[in-house]
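Protein: DUF5105 domain-containing protein
Species: Anaerostipes hadrus
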Amino acid sequence: MKRRIFKQFLSGILGILLLLSLAGCGQSTSDSKPDDTMEAFYDLIIKQDTTSMTDLGIDDSEASDTLKTYQTSMISTLQKSFKNAGVTITKKQANEIYKAISSKLSSLDHKITVTGQDKKNATVKVSSQYINYLDIFKQAKQTTLDELKPLHIENLSDAKKQLVSNVIEAFNSTDVSSDMHTQTFKLKLQKIKSGKNTLHIFFPDNYEEVGSKLMKNATNQ
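Structure follows.
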């Protein structure tokens, strides 16, 4: 179950950031630092926060819609992942698990450093603490199996509730790492159309790669 859950959870990220429009004409421009851009991506993917995106000049409704689509995708992916593992959970249960995951990821410390920059290109290093995502699901599954017999849980519905409860508790109680994982990202100075404006900012070419690498970093993959 754990491998499928992570694989599908991660795949739900891919394509989400494509909602941020590229190129086109606009009425105003904005300059940003490369580390501001990576802070915005980190906050959106890991902390579920659009503030840094809007600080870049990204349209507020566009950023909010992107986050909402991202969250809906993650909840749906969790449901499908459990179903593929033979356990059907409700949308409400998937949402509760997702909130626990998001809360723990939001607690991670991180550091963003520009390691190289010229007029058109930049290299940015993102370091962050992490959680052992797959191990958390494994732990919750084993805890549930150990509890079923002594708690006299025989009803399938009750067993599923117990599993969901244990997954949530495992995420809530897990310790974050004492060290950090690091990923390096390349950005280019680009025209980004957002709402009525066109922004001149450092932005990655491959949004899917950014989301994937940030999530892998934070989940120890």
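Remarks: Residues 107 and 147 are 29 Å apart (CA to CA).
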